[in-house]
Amino acid sequence: MVPKKSKLWTKDFIIISIENLLAFLSFYLLMIVISGYAMSKFDSSPGEAGIATSIFVIGGLFMRLLIGKWMGQIGYKKTLYSGIIFSFITTLLYFGVNSIILLVIVRFLHGMSFGIITTATGTIIASIIPMDRRGEGISYYGLSLILATAVGPFLGIFITQNGSFNMIFVACTITSIISFLIMPFLSSLNEMELTAEQLEEMKEFKFDNFFETKVIPISMCCMIIYICYSSVVSFVAVYSQEINLISAASFFFIVYGAVVAITRPVIGRLFDSKGENSIMYPAILIFSIGITLFSQAHHGYTILLAGAVLGLGFGAIQSSTQAISVNVTPQHRMGLANSTYFAFTDIGMGIGPLLVGLMIPFFGYRGMYMVMAIVAAVCLLVYYLLHGKKVHWINEMSVHEHVVMD
Asked: What is 51-104 written as a DSSP string?
């Protein structure tokens, strides 16, 4: 007799996925246009406009380092509520910005609210997904990010072409209002009650109260992958212009998103049934091949093929590493685990463009992407050393800890 699967698609699962979608939709709506807004509105230099764009990620990273420590004390649901309210207030501040300095400040504050929301949603989703379907559940949940990645930039460009920058701020305000309105439908979560000893320990100013050490190894591997991925995201426009494949490149992320959406549920089920190593090793190799294809593109179909291969590889890595970080963490430190994991991915996305930007004058775009493909391939060894070779032992320990906590 086949054992009955635990229920995945609950009301709370859907609501948290929508909350995550709305947060990332607002992020991409602004990310795609904010540099143009800064230059046209305040006559800013490209460098100043770049700061206004990237400071958002820094604000999110700053808040992640704090919120993981606090979340266990104030509760997951209250944390998410505070992040949504904070996001609504900071979105309204955009309407009163009258200088580049104020814009940078508002972007930093908005990034802080984004860090609170996405850390909270990631922690809540990990706590409500049945353990036997964790890989599958996180894969489905991750589709909210993929949908935002596809829809956000498209809407941002469409609104600015047919309206004004203020309409972007209106759209972001609406997403915050919708986020707030659906929160009351979220059930009272069965949150982990911290003992007096655990609460007292979390108040101490020490490394373990800002980072979940068990998550750091897989997060470091993921950070390197994100550095490689950011090279594609950051320079796809100028690279495609240099090789005269702009038209094909405009469909790159559509193909990428479609492949991720189609394959993620399958990847999640394989993760649960076969284990992380069966996913991670081929996914890292596929990801490296995708960057190699991208570096050697001379025809439009090669660009699109590279998008499909990268979607298969990176999509599997992204969902699997998040599931791994949850699996190796005790229940009462789930907030810290998510804040640690996302902090490392933020660092990868943040420093990646800077690092590869320094390489381009020496190697050119094709050479730079080949270097990134090699770095991605080296992650096979990095993953093995940091996590892969210890999988059986780690999984046995984490299952024991979760059983004890439950």
From this structure: HHHHHHHHHHHHHHHHHHHHHHHH-HHHHHHHHHHHHHHHHHHGGG--SHHHHH
Q: Band of the pLDDT at 316, cuts 50, 70, 90? A: very high
CATH of domain 207-406: 1.20.1250.20
Give the pLDDT band (50/70/90) at residue 86. very high
| Spatial CA neighbour of 229 closest among 384, 327, 356 | 356
Number of other residues whose CB lies within 10 A of the CB of residue 397: 14
Phi–psi pair at 350, nearest 5 degrees: -80, -45
> How do the domains of the chain map onto residue ranges?
10-182, 207-406
Residue 34 in tokens: 């904010």
Check residue 1 and give its pLDDT.
Answer: 46
* Angle subtended at Cα 326 by Cα 323 and Cα 332, rounded to the nearest 5 degrees: 165
Distance CA 143, CA 90 (A): 26
CATH superfamily of 10-182: MFS general substrate transporter like domains (1.20.1250.20)
C-beta separation of 260 from 313 below 8 A: no
pLDDT per residue as tens digits for the range 23-77: 989 988 887 778 778 888 888 887 777 778 778 888 888 888 888 777 777 888 8
Query: Which amino acid, residue 176?
Result: S
pLDDT band at 147 (very low <50, low <70, confident <90, very high): confident
Do the domains spanning 10-182 and 207-406 agree at the CATH topology level?
Answer: yes
- The Cα 338–Cα 219 span in angstroms is 10
Degrees, nearest 5: CA angle 61-34-310: 65
* Residue 332 to residue 192: CA distance in whole angstroms: 6
This prediction has a pTM of: 0.75
**Rounded to an integer, what distance in angstroms lies between the CA atom of residue 120 and that of residue 168?**
25
Taking the C-alpha atoms of residue 320 and residue 274, their distance in angstroms, rounded to an integer, is 12
Alpha-carbon gap, residue 26 to 87, rounded angstroms = 10
